[in-house]
Amino acid sequence: MSSIATNAREASAGANDSLKSEFVAFKTNRIIEVASNLFYQRGYSSCTLDLVADNLGVTKPFLYSYFKNKEAILAAICEVGISESLAVLEATLADEHKTHRALLTEVVRQVGRIVIERQEYVVVYQREMKHLSATDHNRILRMRASFDHQIAELIREGVEAGEFREDTDSFVAVWIGGLISWIPTWYSPGGQRSSGEVIDQLVTAALRLAGAE
Amino acid sequence: MSSIATNAREASAGANDSLKSEFVAFKTNRIIEVASNLFYQRGYSSCTLDLVADNLGVTKPFLYSYFKNKEAILAAICEVGISESLAVLEATLADEHKTHRALLTEVVRQVGRIVIERQEYVVVYQREMKHLSATDHNRILRMRASFDHQIAELIREGVEAGEFREDTDSFVAVWIGGLISWIPTWYSPGGQRSSGEVIDQLVTAALRLAGAE
DNA sequence: TAAGCGCCGTACTGGCCAGTAGTTTTTTCT
DNA sequence: AGAAAAAACTACTGGCCAGTACGGCGCTTA
């Protein structure tokens, strides 16, 4: 009996905890969403936490119960784009049945989609990374390096398999990363080109760089 | 006689003035050089003018006798990379005897060189443009647009002339601009790759994007 | 050498802002 | 209902920084 009661209590406590942590996650997300938008518009250093709080309809101490300080908010923002991209990259590369050309196409398409979706996060990351603490900076730099490394590997194998031109240096991985990162500086959601067109163009460009035609 | 005297006086005054304006130009240059370096390292908003002055061995009011305010210094920095690139672009395109392929190669090579030389200026421009006044912002944006437009035109003519693949959209001009702008985020002067190698790679990449092979 | 001028420095201010201490409100549990 | 705990707010501070008023020093000119 006591064990049943205990289990029930634990289960209930567990449910409560998870509900509570869902609330916390939700609020945390809202904060980085709004903060990202404001950092994007005004720049990290010239954006005050009072402003972020105002835009959320709360006050500054509220933010401090979810993040240690201003820099922690920035770190959370910077991590979004790169961690999602890395996740998609690894999920895509897991499919062993595809050709290297198909893999490259799919990776570029998926990551391009994420970069467009998370445009503001990506731009803030690119512009404001230098304000991160050394620890956060290194963690994010490692993710970025891992991304580039895996693309370079994909290129190398594709060249070996004869799918890409043999005079293709695996360093084009960095150039392809450049194409992807470049999108947010000129694409705007309501603009002339749809995100679909942009992604198609991106894929074409990446394939040309890889010599896969 | 009076006219000779006047001329002599004017000539002398002119020489003085030009010498003086050379001094002014020199000091102005030193300011944007040092400021660019500090804005590059710390970001525009978190870099104080006292710090800039310290690094020049002068004091803050000195800066205010050469620039109206902090933003004017930023504007001067932002203009360097793009105005030099535009000048080189137009000088290169003036050579009527070259093929479109040769013109594209030369433009990319020259602008790549400028971007590497002026790396810090270019990065500050990309990151901090949003802190410019509307007037400065527009002036610089127009230069940038003119650059992209002329590259697009070059691509279009090259396709027409049969030098580039016929399924090449002139929008690759923007992608090529992306490759060039991407260099400063990963190239470092003392690093593994020499600037010559980087530029060769850049040219190769640009030609592949244009379908000129 | 003395007067005049211009260049640069000293010293200040007014406002802004990250971060915090202590209080009030809301929720939870009995 | 009422107490205890959790969540959010009010109100403040200490330091920083763009921009400025004014003073002094050296340099020209006669």
UniProtKB/TrEMBL annotation, chains A, B:
Coiled-coil blocks? none
Name the InterPro entries for this protein.
DNA-bd_HTH_TetR-type_CS, Homeodomain-like_sf, HTH-type_TetR-like_transc_reg, HTH_TetR, KstR2_TetR_C, Tet_transcr_reg_TetR-rel_C_sf
Q: Which SUPFAM superfamilies match?
A: Homeodomain-like (SSF46689), Tetracyclin repressor-like, C-terminal domain (SSF48498)
Q: Which residues bind DNA?
A: 48-67
Q: Where's the HTH tetR-type domain?
A: 25-85
Alphabetically sorted, this entry's keywords are:
DNA-binding, Repressor, Transcription, Transcription regulation
> Which Pfam families does the entry link to?
TetR_C_24 (PF17932), TetR_N (PF00440)
Quick check: keyword Protease in the entry? no
The leader peptide range reads none
Entry protein name: TetR/AcrR family transcriptional regulator
Q: What broad taxonomic lineage does this protein's source fall under?
A: Bacteria, Pseudomonadati, Pseudomonadota, Alphaproteobacteria, Sphingomonadales
